[in-house]
Amino acid sequence: MIFVQNHMQRLYSLGARKVIVVNVGPIGCIPYQRAINPSAGDNCVNFPNGLAQLYNTQLRGLVSELSSKLTGSKFVYADAYGIVQDIIQNYSSYGFENANSACCSGGGRFGEIIPCGPSSKICANRSKYVFCDPYHPTDAANIIIAKRLLDGNSPDIWPMNVRQLFASS
C-alpha cells in the first residue's frame, strides 16, 4: 500500500487535487479464474476475491487518510468490486444473458483459456455478456459501471460521485 500512497502523494505534489481511486474488481469472477479453478464450479473463486477485498479495504482507508491529510485535495473511492459483483449476481436484471463466460471464446469451459485472437469465436450479441474476453467486461457492462460512478451514491462511490467531484471547488 506504500507504493500506492507514494503515487497518490506524487500526483498531489504535481498539482492534482481531485482524484478518483478505483478499487480492484472481483477478479475471482473473471472467466479466466473460473477456468483455471474448476473446483469452484459455476461460482466465483474465493481466494483471489478475498485478496482483492483485503486490498480494497486498505485502499479505502488510504483514500480517507489522504483526503484529510493533503490540504485542498478530494480523493474519491470508487467501488468497482461491489458494482461488478452486483452486475454478476443480478445479470438478468441488467439485460445480460451470460455472466460467467467470455463473449470471445478461445477454448475452455467458459471460453477463456486462450486470449482472443483471429481464430476465436465471437458470440452473436456481446451486449448480452458481462465479459468480453477472459479478463474484461463488455462495453455494456462498462456503461453500467460508468453510470453508477458518474451519478451514483455510496457504497458505489464515496464520499461523492464523479459529477459532484467535478462540480466541487
Automatic annotation (TrEMBL):
GO process terms (BP): lipid catabolic process
GO molecular function per UniProt: hydrolase activity, acting on ester bonds
Entry keyword Hydrolase: yes
Coiled coil segments of this chain: none
Keywords: Hydrolase, Lipid degradation, Lipid metabolism
Pfam families xrefs: Lipase_GDSL
Family: Belongs to the 'GDSL' lipolytic enzyme family.
Protein name: GDSL esterase/lipase At4g16230
Source organism (scientific name): Nicotiana tabacum (Common tobacco)
Gene encoding the protein: LOC107820394
